[in-house]
């Protein structure tokens, strides 16, 4: 079995290298378990003062979960495979929670593609994290494109973006770059790829007590290389806040439809390709998560995942995108007008008693 998670400790920093380049570092259950075991081992290790996670390839930090695995397991469903699917989401979300409350500085170099599950292992963390972007960063929560929703704590971190940017990114699945990520509070510092080698040298030699301070000081030299105030999200902020402020997907569609601007037309065209049902479910998720803790968001998302596979929308989305590659999913319902509130709310119905929830142990 190949090892896709490489680890070493150097200068009291635990380095994690995601090394599955052919799959853009998509997370398998084995990788989730390796990451969890590593972080747990370093949790109280006095020889490790910080964690630095990155990729062996400039193409991607991590493109998300292994969606082909989701499809294969979800369509064949022998008992052992079905259990593996259940295990994947339970253990992935537990990993996100572990990172959120990690007691040591946790730094993620989000070079290249960082989407879905990749966002989960980069955005997690509150007081401990530092998120680095480069000119090659391609960031998104594109789950509605495959009939899923922005999970891995997306209900938590998308709600911590300015205004309605979280709703916009969740419902459209749009890809953003470094400047937009910084503007949206989805990144902390910018370092060009040409300076990564020097950054790694710094990490191997710095004696700074808080490694994040050393990285911020290093990144300061490149602050003028990127214009956050004039990025796409900043320019469209007023339109985003205006159109995505509602709690009903149909109202957002109507608002965009009454706007003749290029932004509104482009956004509608994009949303017309997404799952109508999962856009509505995503909007409901984000609104419900506004005042929830990390653990509460992850528990809710774990319940939602079960409903997603039961409904089958995600299997159709993955079929169209990566299996048959016809890019013509047959969504059910097929239009926003056909999505009803009862169906949306069914994705939040309890699956387990509270005490038996797979993530009941998360504080």
TrEMBL record:
Q: Which SUPFAM superfamilies match?
A: ClpP/crotonase (SSF52096)
Print the keywords alphabetically. Answer: Hydrolase
Q: What is this protein called?
A: Enoyl-CoA hydratase/isomerase family protein
Highest taxon of source: Bacteria
The Enoyl-CoA hydratase/isomerase domain sits at 13-348
Claim: Cell inner membrane is one of the keywords in the record: no
- Quick one: signal sequence residues? none
**Origin species:** Undibacterium cyanobacteriorum
């Amino acid at each position: 079995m190949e090892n896709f998670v490489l680890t070493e400790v150097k200068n009291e920093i635990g380095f994690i290298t995601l090394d599955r380049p052919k799959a853009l570092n998509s997370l398998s259950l084995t990788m989730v378990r390796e990451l969890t075991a590593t972080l747990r081992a370093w949790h109280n290790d006095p020889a490790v003062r910080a964690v630095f996670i990155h990729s062996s390839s400039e193409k991607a930090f991590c493109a998300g979960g292994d969606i082909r695995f989701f499809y294969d397991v979800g369509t064949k469903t022998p008992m052992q495979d079905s259990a593996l699917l259940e295990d994947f989401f339970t253990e992935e979300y537990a990993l996100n929670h572990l990172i959120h409350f990690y007691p040591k500085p946790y730094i993620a170099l989000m070079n290249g593609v960082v989407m879905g599950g990749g966002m989960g292992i980069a955005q997690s963390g509150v007081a401990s994290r530092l998120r680095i972007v480069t000119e090659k960063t391609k960031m998104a929560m594109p789950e509605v494109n495959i009939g899923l929703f922005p999970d891995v704590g997306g209900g938590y971190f998308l709600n911590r973006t300015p205004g309605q940017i979280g709703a916009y990114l969740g419902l459209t699945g749009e890809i953003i770059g470094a400047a937009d990520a910084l503007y949206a509070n989805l990144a902390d510092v910018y370092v060009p790829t040409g300076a990564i080698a020097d950054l790694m040298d710094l990490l191997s030699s710095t004696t700074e007590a808080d490694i994040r301070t050393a990285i911020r000081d290093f990144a300061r030299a490149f602050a003028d290389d990127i214009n956050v105030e004039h990025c796409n999200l900043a320019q469209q902020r007023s339109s985003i806040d205006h159109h995505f402020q509602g709690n009903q997907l149909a109202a957002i569609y109507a608002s965009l439809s009454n706007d003749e601007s290029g932004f509104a037309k482009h956004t509608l065209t994009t949303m017309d390709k997404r799952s109508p049902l999962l856009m509505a479910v995503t909007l409901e998720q984000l609104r419900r998560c506004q005042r929830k803790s990390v653990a509460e968001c992850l528990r809710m998302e774990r319940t939602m995942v079960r409903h997603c596979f039961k409904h089958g929308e995600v299997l159709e989305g993955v079929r169209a995108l990566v299996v048959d590659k016809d890019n013509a999913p047959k969504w059910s319902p097929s239009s926003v007008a056909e999505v009803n509130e009862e169906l949306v709310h069914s994705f939040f119905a309890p699956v387990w008693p509270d005490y038996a929830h797979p993530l009941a142990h998360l504080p």
